[in-house]
Design a protein that fits this description.
Double Stranded RNA Binding Domain; 9 strands; 205 residues; 4-stranded mixed β-sheet; SHC Adaptor Protein
Length: 205
Amino acid sequence: MALEVTGRQYEVTPAVRKQVEHGLEKLQKILGKTFDTHVILAAEKKRHIAEITINVRNHSFVGIAEAAEMSTALGDAIDKIDRQAVKYKTKFRAKKRAARKAGVTAEWNGNAEEGQKAPATLAVGVSESTAVDVVVHSFPVSSRITEAHVTKSDDSVALRPMTLEEAVKEAEFRDRDVFVFRDRQGKVKVLHRKKDGKMVLIEAP
C-alpha cells in the first residue's frame, strides 16, 4: 500500500498521519493491501478540509469532508471512503457469484469445458436420409447425499450492540454470509447475504 500525505497551508503532524494510517488499516480488510492512497489536508481560515483518494484496480474512491478540527474532517472523509468500499466489494462479489452460476448453467446445457466428457449423440429415424441427431445426456444412477455437518462459528456473532450500518460493515470485514447482532435496544437481528449479493435483514420477534 502506497500512501502520500500532502499539506496545503497545514502542517501534517505525526498524530494526524497516524490517524490516516489507522483508518486505512480497516480498509485493507475490504480492499486488500494493493491500493494507492493520496491524502490532501488543507486549512482555510477557520475550517479544515480533508480529501482522500484511493485507487484500486481500475476503480477510484474519493472522500471529502470539512470541519472546524482536522481530526474530525479526516474521520468523516475516511467514513465516506469506507462506505464506498463496502458497496464496491458487495457488487464485486455479486458479479463473481453470477459468473459462477452462469458457468454451471453452461455445463448443464452441454457446453462443457475442455477435458470434460462431451455428451453422446445418437441418430434417430426410419432411414439414414431422414435420421436426426439426438444428444444423449448421462446422469448418475443415484444421487450423492451428505449428512449435515454443524460447526460453531464465533465470527458470525457480534459481541457488542451496533447499528445496522455497523453490522453491515462488520459482516463485510469478516466475510460472513450470515451475521447475528443486537441493536442499541438489545433486539436480536440477523443479516443474510443472498446469492445475488444483496443483504437481507431478519428481525427476531
